[in-house]
Amino acid sequence: MLSRFLRKLNGGIFFLRNSLTPRQFLLLSSVIVGLSSALAVIVLKSFAHMVLIFAKELNQQLHFKYVDFILPVFGIVLTIFITRKLLNGKLEKGTWRIIYAINKKSSIMPRKQMYAQVITSSVTVGFGGSAGLESPVTITGAAFGSNYARVYKLSTKERTLLLACGVAAGIAAAFNAPIAGVLFTMEVLLADVGITAFIPLMLASASGALLSAAVLNESILLSFKNMAVFELQNVPFYIVLGVLTGFIAVYHNRVFNRIETWMEHWKMKAYQKGIVGALLLSTLIFIFPSLFGEGYDSIRSLSTEKVFDLLDGTLFESFKQSWFPLVFIGAVVFLKAIATGLTLGSGGNGGNFAPSLFVGSYTGFAFAYGWNLAGIGFALPITNFTMVGMAGLLSGLFHAPLTAIFLIAEITGGYGLMIPLMIVSSISFAISKRYLNHSMDIVKLADEGHVVRADKDRHILSSIDPADILEETLVVLNPTDTVSTLFLTIQYSHQALIPIVSDSGMLLGMIYLDDLPTILPVYSSEPNTPLELVMEPIRYSLNPRNTLEQVMEMFERSKLNYLPVIDNDQVLGYYSKSRLLEAYRKKIMDSMVE
């Protein structure tokens, strides 16, 4: 029955593909991709919510308060099992996979990403893994858009746009925030967006948000309606909060990546690493149950100032003095990065979007609660600071201030907090950029030499394959060869530079064709002069791991037109500045044609 329905649906879309204009079909496709992404959100959120209810009921039936201690181990081990048995042992995690696909794979994403993220992240986070579902949702949406475009034979530019539509719809559906969904794709994924891209993005985002809002209730979606009025006298405190969230974003980024990298080097089998890492995570959850899962329930408790609810069922439920929640919340702020690192490093799946909101809300609450507790002056609106803190961490971690501002504005049901949101997000972003060159999304790309920044020139350079412009070296000479041999060689060689190598192949020097006028008098007077006396030392060189952005910077610094590519003292070839610029020009022309 289902297969028959899918065949008819596929046939219907092909009919529309041939009947509508390309622009009309693209707009229709953006809605289809948006609805598909929303369905993934509904599945993920519903499953995670059901597991949370299951855990609470299990607590009541077994009279065992700390069942949450056991569930994350089960979830992570089950995720590893699914990865090994259903996904060939490979789980591609992280939003950076989308950015890599856009810039290096012509926006082509593996088909298995349409279901792999939904299955694994729902198991990991549903059973208490301390991560978020939004990153898996964006990857799933991107995969829907990419593979939809491939099935219906759309261009690379259209495929990239539909991939972005899937991401925008995923964010919009997860938070019922269509504007934030569009802005996220612009700030994080797409280096430059034409005006024609806005309508498909908005259609996809609105479609995803509508379907999610119609199916999911507010107990699953993150929404708040009890904001206080913004008061001008609180501006200095929002500035301080912006500074605070900026530095905590730097801390979270660095600690999370160190934990994940540390675990990658463990000499253990997959299940062993999963169990050990999950047990460490469970220990943290045993002491601080707020670290269980996404943590959105605890954010709701803070937003309504029910701070003592966080201590219920914990080892500290008898410590309900007014100052103790401040200590508890402060500890959670700094432990969340470790908990998320353990979750993902041990083999679980999830993202840092939800943890950024979690840590931000705790930071904002702790700041306002601590001030009010001190009783120094007038009281701060705790709910407002809790919400604005979320924007600060999100902006600092993902270098996406516009997304942070409009996301919190949308989930709070209005724009009354726009001014403090702008203040805190901007300051946090500035501080984070000062200490972190790369956001949470692209730090992995930077580590692998594929960093892509939201700059058009660098975006285009990153999309060029270095192998396409590498000139292979076919002719080399020895240091004992003569100047006469050099001039004889250049008559039949088109190389722009001639490497001078030893008998073992080690590069000793270089002769650039640009330098031939200075060597010509030697050829005329002493043609038997050995090349070792006229060759140039290697002052500037590159290696195969350099990005084209680094290659261009080297051209600018050296003022040379050709640069050798060397690896282990062996010359592999050379880059030509003119050939690189020609490839750059061609990329621009191709994007205009599409």
From TrEMBL:
InterPro entries, alphabetized = CBS_dom, CBS_dom_sf, Cl-channel_core, ClC, ClC-type_chloride_channel
Give the superkingdom in one word.
Bacteria
- The record's principal subcellular location, in a coarse class, is membrane
Query: How does the record say this protein sits in the membrane?
Result: Multi-pass membrane protein
Provide the Gene Ontology terms for cellular component.
Answer: chloride channel complex
Q: Which residues form a coiled coil?
A: none
The keyword Membrane is assigned to this record: yes
Q: Which residues form the CBS domain?
A: 535-591
Which keywords has UniProt assigned to this entry? CBS domain, Chloride, Chloride channel, Ion channel, Ion transport, Membrane, Transmembrane, Transmembrane helix, Transport
Claim: Transmembrane helix is one of the keywords in the record: yes
One of its Pfam families is CBS
Tell me where in or outside the cell this protein is found. Membrane
Q: Which GO terms describe its molecular function?
A: chloride channel activity
Show the stretches that span the lipid bilayer: 25-44, 64-83, 114-133, 161-186, 193-215, 235-253, 274-292, 323-345, 357-382, 402-431
What is the recorded name of this protein? Cl-channel voltage-gated family protein
